[in-house]
């Protein structure tokens, strides 16, 4: 599972309709370009691909001021919404997710009802516990991991990773059950997207005015200078 699909579907859904620069700006505001593959080129490419796959609807809304492709805004449809929630639930419940996918899931967790979010995270904890048990039961010598030489440190690392992941997830469950955050159906959620005219302190590359208006959505974006 790729984090980029979940990130883009979630970002477009939060806006209602958004052009490529808005999506890129949001993801950079969240720092996703540091912890995922959400780089400019992959964002624009994924938007166009998901429109072709019927998950997003592309709207040509304004001509380019420099003679390039028109500004394109993307809107999530019913099929895209179904895919979004499928990816979100998988990101939160699977103990085998990569860190970037789990991070994307946490970023959109409040789109779910509180009870469902807790249930998915509990499923993740159970998976981590099962995996840890299988490692310690079948791969740990009676005399201890040191009997495997330095190779034993591999299992030691994974056992500690499972313990840390389960501990963090239990802490999140406790905070959610204690009333933290605003989940679906509970009122106005935290707004995690930038307003159109708001500066982004984490932007990797300042865009020209025409880029902001979206004429590059169907073109290759410039590389950061």
From TrEMBL:
Q: Domain Transcription regulator PadR N-terminal, which positions? A: 8-83
Write out the ranges of the annotated region (Disordered): 194-225
TM regions (residue ranges): none
Gene3D superfamilies from the xrefs? Winged helix-like DNA-binding domain superfamily/Winged helix DNA-binding domain (1.10.10.10)
User: Which Pfam families does this one have?
Assistant: PadR (PF03551)
Q: Where is the composition biased (Basic and acidic residues)?
A: 211-225
Name of the molecule in the record:
Transcriptional regulator
Q: Which organism's genome codes for this protein?
A: Embleya scabrispora
């Amino acid at each position: 599972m790729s984090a980029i699909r979940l990130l883009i579907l979630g970002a477009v859904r939060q806006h209602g309709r958004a052009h490529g620069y808005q999506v890129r700006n949001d993801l950079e505001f969240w720092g996703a370009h540091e912890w995922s593959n959400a780089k400019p080129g992959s964002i624009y490419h994924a938007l166009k691909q998901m429109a072709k796959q019927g998950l997003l609807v592309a709207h040509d809304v304004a001509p380019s001021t420099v003679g390039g492709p028109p500004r394109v805004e993307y809107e999530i449809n019913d099929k895209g919404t179904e895919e979004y929630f499928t990816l979100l639930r998988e990101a939160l419940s699977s103990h085998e997710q990569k860190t970037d996918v789990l991070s994307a899931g946490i970023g959109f967790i409040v789109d779910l009802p509180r009870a469902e979010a807790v249930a998915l995270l509990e499923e993740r904890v159970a998976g981590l516990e099962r995996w840890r048990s299988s490692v310690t039961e079948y791969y740990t010598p009676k005399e201890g991991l040191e009997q495997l030489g330095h190779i034993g440190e591999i299992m030691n690392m994974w056992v500690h990773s499972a313990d840390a992941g389960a501990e963090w997830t239990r802490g999140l469950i406790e905070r959610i059950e204690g009333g933290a955050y605003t989940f679906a159906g509970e009122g106005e959620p935290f707004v995690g997207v930038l307003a159109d005219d708001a500066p982004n302190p984490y932007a990797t590359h300042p865009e020209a005015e025409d880029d902001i208006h979206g004429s590059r959505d169907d073109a290759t974006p410039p590389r950061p200078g």
